[in-house]
Structures are given as structure tokens and as C-alpha cells.
Design brief:
The chain is an alpha+beta fold. The protein has 4 helices and 9 strands; from the N terminus they run ββββαβαββαββα. It has helices at about 85-100, 125-145, 175-180, 210-235, and strands at about 15-20, 25-30, 35-45, 60-65, 110-120, 160-165, 170-175, 185-190, 195-205. The strands form 2 sheets. It has a 5-stranded mixed beta sheet with strand order 1-2-3-5-4. A hairpin with a 7-residue loop joins strand 1 and strand 2. It is globular. The N and C termini lie far apart (about 35 Å).
């Protein structure tokens, strides 16, 4: 039995609450169980310098964790002068994931920045940020369309993410901190609504995992992401 008493293929309780930040062009408070992440989308009227005169826009992300998002206070990264390697890795993952479903030419020479701030962490913060970040991005694009800033819809598909792992010798979906902390294998899957793989991150914490175990994790991830995409659809309807 899992610590949370969930079935192996059962997600934590997931909620996607839109419009929670008054001034942002798009926003979503996403909850995967006790992991809570505030995602906001901000439109900037110019693209990054390297895209100037290219006719293309950009979608990028920033990620941070509030000092008491965890059991003990963590120091704000701004006081150290630069983000940690972990933070840089996560925010690049979020940006890549969201860009995979956006036609960057259609948004023109503009930039959309998705800020993902972890209010409370209990495992799976990056997967929650990607899933909620898509909702914030969707609403930002709708905001632009409502002001005739776009001629079409540059958002080509949904994208969502979930963690899987081998805990207690069994493949399980959507690890919380208690499971993630002792898992033999930990993996994150990012997939589109049509089933395309965007990124897979998998690590063996103890003994190496087999191809059969990897495929079992993949099956769990596909089922979990399909349910997350359904929740995204319900949230933006």
C-alpha cells in the first residue's frame, strides 16, 4: 500500500484554478495534492534580442520556491546572486515543454513569460508547474486574441507532465514527497494532448531499472497525462 493509500495508477487530487492573479494576462493556481504552484503568464511587447527582426516570438519560464514551501526555510536565491543549478534546469524544462505546443511565428515578435512560484512543495513541483503553466499560457493567448493581437490561435495542443517511479518494488504514478524520497527509480514525463513525447527524465536511485519497468512507467504516465489534459480542458471551457 502506498503511503497516501492511492492505487498505483491513481493521481493525487488535482485542481486548476484560473484567474487568481489580478494583473497577469493569464494565471492558474495548480494543486497536485499538497503541492501548490502559482503560475502566471505575462506578455512582453518585444521578443528577446536574438529574435529581433525574425518575425518570431518566444515563450519562456521562470521557477522559484518560496522560503517556507518546504519543512524548513530555504534561503531566497536572489540573496545568493543567481539561481541554483536545479532551478535553472526546471525553468528550462518548463519553457521547452510549453514552446513545444506553440507556433512561435503566430505570436509575432512578442514574448510570454510564465512565472511558476511554488507555494507549498510535496513532490512533483516541476510537473505541476508545466500542467498549470499551460492553463496560464492558454489564458494569456486568449487575452491577446480578445484584443485582436493575433489572427489565429498559436496554441497547437495541450501539454502536461507527471512523475512516475518504482517505489516498494512497484511502478506508481504521481509520487508525493514520501514516495519520491525513497523511490528506487524516479522519472518525469512530459507529453502533449495528442500523445507526443516532449521530454522524459528518468533516474535510478539504487539498482538500474529494466526496459520492462521503463515501459510500465510509460504506460502509467500516458494514462495520468490523459487525465490531466481532460482537467485542463474542463478548466478552460
Amino acid at each position: 500500500m502506498r503511503p497516501s493509500r492511492r492505487a498505483p495508477d491513481e493521481l493525487r487530487k488535482v485542481s486548476l484554478e484560473r484567474g487568481v492573479a489580478r494583473y497577469a494576462e493569464g494565471s492558474c493556481l495548480v494543486k497536485f495534492g499538497e503541492t501548490h504552484v502559482l503560475c502566471t503568464a505575462s506578455l512582453e511587447e518585444r521578443a528577446p534580442p536574438w529574435l529581433r527582426n525574425s518575425g518570431k516570438g518566444w515563450v519562456t519560464a521562470e521557477y522559484s520556491m518560496l522560503p517556507r514551501a518546504t519543512h524548513e526555510r530555504t534561503r531566497r536565491e536572489v540573496t545568493s546572486g543567481k539561481p541554483s543549478g536545479r532551478t535553472q534546469e526546471i525553468q528550462r524544462l518548463i519553457g521547452r515543454s510549453l514552446r513545444s505546443v506553440v507556433d512561435l511565428t503566430s505570436i509575432g515578435e512578442k514574448q510570454i513569460v510564465i512565472d511558476c512560484d511554488v507555494l507549498q512543495a510535496d513532490g512533483g513541483t516541476r510537473t505541476a508547474a508545466i500542467t498549470g503553466g499551460w492553463v496560464a499560457l492558454h489564458d494569456c493567448i486568449q487575452w491577446m486574441r480578445g484584443r485582436s493581437m493575433l489572427t489565429g490561435n498559436p496554441l497547437k495542443d495541450h501539454v502536461a507532465a507527471v512523475s512516475c517511479g518504482i517505489a516498494g518494488g512497484a511502478p506508481v504514478l504521481d509520487l508525493d514527497y514520501a514516495e519520491d524520497n525513497g523511490a528506487e527509480t524516479d522519472a518525469n514525463f512530459v507529453m502533449t494532448g495528442t500523445g507526443g513525447l516532449v521530454e522524459v527524465q528518468g533516474t535510478a536511485e539504487g539498482k538500474p531499472f529494466s526496459e520492462e519497468e521503463f515501459l510500465a512507467l510509460m504506460r502509467l504516465a500516458k494514462g495520468g497525462i490523459a487525465r490531466l489534459v481532460e482537467l485542463q480542458k474542463l478548466a478552460v471551457t
